[in-house]
Structure formats: C-alpha cells, structure tokens
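Consider the tokenized backbone below.
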C-alpha cells in the first residue's frame, strides 16, 4: 500500500501551508495537457484534527501537491471548492499547472514567420510571460529535451499573435506544438519547496517500453478491467480538409481511401478544420492523418491496472509506448499504443487503481 500525503501551498511563493486529510482522491497526468485532481475534505475534522479554512484552501491562490512514497507525482492549482448544507464534505477540484497558461493573454504582438525555430518561439513566449505581474511560482521554468532547435515553422506560414486578439498562452502553445513537439510536467522537491518544470520534447515524448498490458485467457492478465468502444458513428472514409481563409477562398483539400469502400463499408464523409493551417501541403498531411484514423470504426480502449503488480506504477509515463492486449470474446485486439493520460483513484480503504488512456491513432501518427 502506497503512503500518500496531500499538501497545499501558496501559489505565488511556493511555500507549503499544511497537509490535508482527504478521501475520494483521484488525479491524472496528461501528455501536452494539465491533467486533473479531485478529492473530498471534511467540513469538521475528527477530534484533534485541523479544520480547513479559507486561509489554507482558497481557490486560485492555492497549490495542491500529491506525494506518493516520498516522491511528488502530481501538482497543480486549486480552482474550485464545492459543498452544500446536506454534505459533510467539500469537494476540491484542481488542474495541472499548464491550466494557468489559459488564464493569461498575449497582449503584445508576437509574430513568427516561416522558418522560425520552435525553440526560439517557445522561449520567446515564456520570456514574455515572465514580464507579467504576480505569476504563480515556477510557471516560467521550462526545459527542452531533446532540443527543439532545428524544428521550424514551414516556409510560407505565419504565426501571428496580435495584441488586439488577446490569445491565451495555452492555446498558442497548442498551436505551436502542432508543428512538432509535446510536453509534460516533472515534479521534484527543492529543499522543503515542491517544484515543477514544463518539459518540451521534439518531435515527440515517445519511449518504447516493451510493456504489455493484457486481459483475458492467453494474455499476461495484468489488466484488472477495461472499457472498449468500437464506434462507427465517428467513421469517415472521405475527408474534406479546410484551412486558413473564409468561404470559397478558404484553403481546402479532399482525401479518401477507395480501398475501404472495396472492403464493404458505405461511403461516409467527414470534415477536418484548422484555420491556423496556411500551407496546402500541411493541410493535406493533417487531413490524411484524420482519414487514417477514422476510415474504419474507431477503437478506444482504456485499461485499469493494479499498481501493486509489476510493472509498478512509475515505471511507465505519459507518451510511452505500451502494448494493450485484450482477448475477451468479440473483442480481440492487440496494438501498440502511446499513453495519453495516466489516472489514479484511491478508495476509502486506500486501495489504488491506475487507469491508462491511450492516444487515438490519429494523434499517434501526427
């Protein structure tokens, strides 16, 4: 059984305010996204316990940290606390630190032309962010592994963030990431202060692990449960791609796969739209990626693991490549997947369960 601590701190200074006794805990780390946290805290603690008040747990000015067996495994900002007269607890909701990037705006023009280095662009944006007042502690701490140098915006394209647009930083980072990088967040203690670093990887944070998570007779049976959807409503074997511009002048392309029709599927159409794409070749490539994923019924598996059984929790991370092997009657699928999100839930009896959500195949091919 893992030993957990839940710590709250000052969002501006990083200083720890105290430790919370929580129940109903769940948290997740997500590739190129903030992940989330939820838990319940008692309104009135048992005798001898410390009551939680607004000075300790105020939304937006409070950080929350999860420590598992002495190691920080999650951190973020508390954004809401919910409760009611008929409930003996309050519900805490937090999101990872990158959620803050969607709460601040680019209010000074930042213009990047084709050929601009992604490393330079990301560094410039975080340098501009650092000029803003009253930032969360550590929000501008970033690393580049391996270097983004050499990854550029294609010739002929522009990234324009004008002051009058008030684009938020999170959306800007997502747009730039489409040109060839991913990021996660690493946590560590620095003395008595918890810290975090946004780590950028180019072109992908992708490490083959050789791990296989199986369910059913003939598998390694490491999976204790799964959810599986085979969805034909999302399927399309002909895609219209729409890029920059409006109306008849908009950049557009169409791609399809006749071989799928030869396999007996009906003609099904889909639309992919990304108004930030200005180059025709990139639009064709991006639309083709959508077709590759959606041309057959969409497979979405999510598996649940017991972290006390090898491979142990922490031996795999978001972005890693693992094989999901499900053998259960109608469902018989083995595929290599990259991990999009790792979620952990802790029961009232302190039993952990880990849920792995893979990327869809369109994202894996990007």
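A designed sequence for it:
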């Amino acid at each position: 059984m893992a030993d957990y601590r839940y710590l709250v701190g000052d969002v501006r200074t990083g200083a720890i305010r105290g430790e919370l006794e929580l129940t109903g805990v769940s948290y997740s780390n997500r590739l190129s996204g903030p992940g989330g946290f939820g838990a319940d805290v008692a309104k009135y603690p048992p005798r001898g316990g410390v009551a939680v008040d607004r000075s300790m747990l105020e939304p937006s000015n409070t950080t929350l940290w999860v420590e598992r067996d002495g190691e920080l495994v999650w951190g973020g900002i508390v954004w809401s606390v919910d409760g009611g007269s008929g409930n003996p607890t309050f519900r805490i909701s937090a999101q990872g630190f990158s959620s803050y990037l969607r709460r601040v705006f680019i209010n000074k023009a930042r213009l990047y032309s084709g050929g601009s280095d992604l490393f330079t662009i990301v560094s410039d944006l975080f340098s501009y962010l650092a000029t803003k007042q009253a930032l969360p502690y550590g929000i501008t701490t970033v690393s580049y592994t391996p270097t983004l140098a050499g990854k550029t915006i294609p010739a002929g394209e522009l990234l324009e963030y004008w002051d009058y647009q008030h684009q938020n930083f999170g959306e800007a980072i997502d747009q730039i990431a489409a040109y060839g990088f991913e990021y996660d967040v690493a946590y560590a203690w620095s003395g008595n202060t918890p810290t975090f670093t946004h780590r950028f990887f180019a072109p992908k944070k992708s490490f083959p692990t050789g791990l296989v998570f199986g369910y059913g007779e003939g598998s390694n049976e490491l999976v204790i449960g799964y959810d599986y959807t085979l969805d034909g409503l999302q399927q399309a074997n002909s895609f219209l791609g729409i890029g920059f511009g409006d109306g008849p002048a908009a950049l557009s392309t169409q791609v399809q796969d006749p071989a799928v029709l030869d396999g007996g599927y009906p003609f099904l159409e889909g639309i992919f739209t990304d108004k930030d794409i200005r180059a025709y070749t990139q639009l064709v490539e991006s639309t083709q990626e959508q077709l590759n994923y959606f041309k057959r019924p969409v497979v979405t598996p999510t598996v649940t693991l017991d972290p006390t059984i090898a491979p142990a929790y922490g031996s795999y991370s978001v972005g890693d490549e693992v094989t999901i092997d499900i053998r259960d009657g109608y469902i018989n699928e083995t595929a290599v997947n990259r991990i999009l999100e790792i979620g952990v839930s802790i029961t009232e009896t302190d039993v952990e369960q880990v849920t792995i959500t893979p990327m869809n195949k369109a994202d894996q091919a990007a």
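Residues 362-366 have pLDDT under 50 and may be disordered.
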